[in-house]
Amino acid sequence: MSYNRVILMGNLTRDPETSQSKSGMTICKAGLAVNERMPDGQGGYKDEASFFDAVLFGKRAEAFARFMQKGKPCLIEGKLRQSRWQDKESGKSRSKVEVIVDSWEFVGSKGEDSRGDSVQRAFGGTPQPAAAFGDDVPF
After folding, report:
1. How far apart are CA 115 and CA 106, in angstroms?
2. pTM, whole model, 2 decimals?
3. Cα–Cα distance list, 83 to 17, 62, 79, 99 (Å)
4. What digits encode the pLDDT tens for the residues 37-95?
5. What domains can you pick out in the chain, each with its CATH number?
C-alpha cells in the first residue's frame, strides 16, 4: 500500500513542455500554481501561491500537452518524487520534489472549455460529476 499520494488543483504557470525518452515515450513537464486564502491580519484575506512541478508520461502526457496551456486550471493526482544531484558549478547538493501525475482532469465550467468533457472521455479520463446532469445539477 502506497501512502505517497497528492491531489492538487491550480492553474498552469507555463505551457506544457514535451520531450521523448530513449524508448520513444512522451514526457510532459508543467508547472502548477496553487492558491491558499490566508488572513492578512487586517480583517481581510490574501492569496498565498505555492508552485509545483508536474511530470506526466505516455498517452496521458500527450493529451495533457495537447489540451492544456498556461493559465488553464486543472486538477492533478499523483505521487511525490524527490530528485537529488550535485550542482556542477558549485558542487553543492541540490534537490527538487516533483509530482508524478497518475491522472488529471479539466477544471472549470463547460462555457470555459466546451471541449473538456468529450476530450477527457476520448483519453480515458472520468468526466466531471456535474457534466452528467448538464445544466440541472442536483445540488
Report:
1. 10
2. 0.71
3. 19, 23, 13, 11
4. 989 999 999 999 999 999 999 999 999 999 999 999 999 999 999 999 999 999 999 99
5. 6-39+46-88+95-133 (2.40.50.140)
